[in-house]
Design a protein that fits this description.
By secondary structure, the protein is of the alpha+beta class. It contains 7 helices and 11 strands. It folds into 2 domains: 91 residues, Hypothetical Cytosolic Protein, Chain: A (2-Layer Sandwich); 106 residues, 60s Ribosomal Protein L30, Chain: A (2-Layer Sandwich). The strands form 4 sheets. It has a 4-stranded mixed beta sheet, sandwiched between helices. Strand 1 and strand 2 form a beta hairpin.
Length: 213
Amino acid sequence: MADLLDMEDHRTGATVAPTESRLRTCLVSREHSPTDRLIRFVLSPDREIVPDVDERLPGRGLWLTATRDIVDAACRKRVFARAARGPVSVDDALSDTVERLLERRCLDFLGIARRAGQAVAGFEKTREMIRSARAGLVLTASDAAEDGRRRIEGPARGDDRAAIVSGVFASEALGAVFGRDAAVHVAVERGPLAARLLRECNRLVGFRPAVAE
């Protein structure tokens, strides 16, 4: 996955390889980081702070590290107003909005992978993709049974080409992508789609509590 960040997966310790991502400065920490680790915000014509998780909206970007505490600190300390050099309107639930947008973006990429025939759901199909060394990303639902999670994630951890994202999504959300009520285990084939999805998952986990390992 050479087009991803050199960063540690928030849940598994799996590393992600370097990318050519641009560097930007977080308004709160003042650290220079690749944009893959940040969230972009823009100022609307009505001077409202708008999250731009797709990084496509016009205007000057205001960047924050992709974690809930950083976004909350930016709101609390009036960082946006200083950066925009004037009064701004900031939603009290800005972190929740970012989390919701990032989840939607992740599930959209998973849907693209499914339609491309590069993603499977279900215990047996996921296990088979791992066994055949084709899995680039393994997703386990937050409501997965502990035994099933160990039986899937154990073999995946033995393949350094497969990243694991555990407990980020509910089985209902994963299932909706595959047209079913629930999906507890999902695997995505190695390639650009798995790499892009992992990038988005790494941003999303900064807004969600970790699952105990």
